[in-house]
């Protein structure tokens, strides 16, 4: 059973067709849209501030979604993939974004829609990532435009696949 906890009077709210792995944890002031998935050992911790998650978001194994007390909320748009062991903390992520495996996105960063953040990248506090580009490195820098082929192959494919994967566990 996943761990779903109420904290300070806030109970997580889930849209339709959401999948939570057996050892996923979702806590506190979290609102999640439809067709979302939270995978093995992932933590979505809205204990100190709010977390808002759109539709068709997958939070992969070991990822951590958190925020900062009295300072920063976390907002994640629609069709977003948060890669294995990524950390998304007190920031805003637009629609159609891939946060690669092991990447870190820090407080008050704004990731506009249609971005790809490479595995292992570190998006520093207060950064703004412009729509339509691939970012990578430490600290994350604009690497190249996000081509239509890369968008379709990475962002669309991964988002759709995770909806399919979740269905395997709900049969």
Question: Which keywords apply here?
Answer:
single chain, 171 residues, mainly beta, twelve-stranded parallel sheet, eight-stranded mixed sheet, 1 helix, 20 strands, 39% strand, globular
Describe the structure.
With 171 residues, the chain is mainly β. The chain is 13% helix and 39% strand. The mean pLDDT is 97.
From the helix content, strand content and strand pairing, which structural class follows?
Answer: mainly beta
Number of DSSP E strands: 20
For the termini, the CA-CA separation is 16 Å
Evaluate the radius of gyration: 15 Å
Low-confidence spans: none
Regarding quaternary structure, how should these chains be classified?
A: single chain
Task: Give the topology, please.
Layout: E1 3-5, E2 13-14, E3 19-20, E4 25-32, E5 37-38, E6 43-53, E7 58-59, E8 64-66, E9 74-76, E10 80-82, E11 87-89, E12 92-93, E13 97-99, E14 104-105, E15 110-111, E16 115-117, E17 122-123, E18 128-129, E19 133-136, E20 141-145, H1 148-169
Parallel strand pairs: 1-4, 2-4, 3-5, 4-6, 5-7, 6-8, 6-9, 7-10, 8-11, 9-12, 10-13, 11-14, 12-15, 13-16, 14-17, 15-18, 16-19
Antiparallel strand pairs: 19-20
